[in-house]
Write a structure and sequence with these properties.
Layout lengths: L2 H31 L2 H6 L4 H22 L4 H19 L6 H13 L3 H16 L7 H23 L4 H21 L1 H6 L7 H6 L7 H6 L3 H23 L8 H19 L10 H19 L2
Helix pairs in contact: 1-3, 1-5, 3-5, 3-6, 3-7, 4-5, 4-6, 6-7, 7-8, 8-12, 8-13, 12-13, 13-14
């Protein structure tokens, strides 16, 4: 090996070390979050797993901006800065831990800029909010941006960059986000948010759009049941689209679907009344359930 080649390899190693450090930092963040996402991603080969962790870290970063303590103007400025960062990554520039990790994922799996930008647009909806009793059309747009767009990025990294894969992402993203809305009514109300659509509130006879008042209204289960039916329909469409996908590639998507369907089943069994938050033993049982689902559907 010549001196020039040795120097070239050494230079490459210097570049690779911080990238590896970035990836390890990002994986630690995902694991610490306690997300069921972590268990699903652990099934993937290293390169795909690193790409998914980078996508997750990006989503978590912009979500933290939207939900953080900055002023509205500061939030919008920070999110618009992320629009510029994403433009930069697609032009070959990376400036921080997350963009350095995203760069190889974008190149390898042909991730689409419009999906990253859609996620940021969804976070801007929250930052400009709070969102209170949106119309069904606005709610659908929100779900597409904050959930389905994430899914469209993920399925490419899974190895399913097909029309069927995109359909799974679109429907499953909506199903997961609607399930989150069912689960988090009280938590959202505490920060002044109400994602339940105006049409469903009106149908249930709930005139108020005050988040705490709606969360305490005895007619709330009627609204949650309607949201639940929307989620069930979206899950069914995602299941149908999965038939056109590689079973092996889409294992993580199936795991996420099963974890969330289990919560939807609990909500239905509770007659759509609000479920208490899981703490202590209940949280431990929930985490064990996630692990069992990961093992069961990761082995088919």
């Amino acid at each position: 090996m010549g001196l020039a080649q040795t120097r070239s390899l050494a230079a490459t190693a210097e570049i690779a070390r911080p990238i590896q450090s970035d990836l390890e930092d990002i994986q630690a963040r995902v694991q610490a979050s306690g997300s069921s996402f972590y268990w699903a991603m652990r099934l993937l080969p290293r390169e795909r797993r690193d790409a998914l962790f980078a996508i997750y870290a990006f989503c978590r970063e912009v979500d933290d901006i939207a939900d953080g303590d900055l002023s509205q103007d500061q939030k919008i400025a920070a999110l618009r800065d992320w629009h510029k960062k994403i433009d930069g990554v697609f032009e070959g520039r990376s400036t921080d831990t997350i963009t350095r990790a995203l760069y190889p994922a974008i190149r390898t799996y042909d991730l689409k800029k419009q999906d990253f930008q859609a996620v940021i647009d969804g976070m801007e909806m929250d930052a400009l909010g709070p969102i209170i009793a949106p119309t069904l059309g606005v709610l659908d747009q929100y779900c597409d941006r904050v959930a389905s767009a994430v899914g469209r990025l993920c399925v490419r990294a899974f190895g399913e960059p097909t029309h069927a894969g995109a359909q799974v992402a679109d429907h499953l993203g909506r199903a997961l986000q609607l399930t989150n809305i069912l689960r988090d009514v009280e938590e959202d109300a505490a920060i002044g948010r109400l994602y339940l659509p105006a049409e469903f509130l009106e149908r249930a006879g709930i005139a108020s759009t005050s988040p705490p008042d709606v969360a305490a209204d005895p007619r709330l289960p009627q609204v949650l049941e309607a949201i639940g039916h929307m989620a069930e329909d979206a899950f069914a469409k995602a299941q149908e689209a999965l038939a056109g996908c590689s079973k092996n590639a889409m294992r993580p998507a199936v795991i996420m679907m099963m974890v969330y369907r289990k919560h939807l089943d609990r909500a239905r069994a509770n007659k759509w009344r609000l479920l208490p938050p899981r703490t202590g033993l209940a949280r431990l049982v929930s985490n064990m359930d996630k692990l069992r689902i990961a093992i069961r559907y990761g082995m088919f």
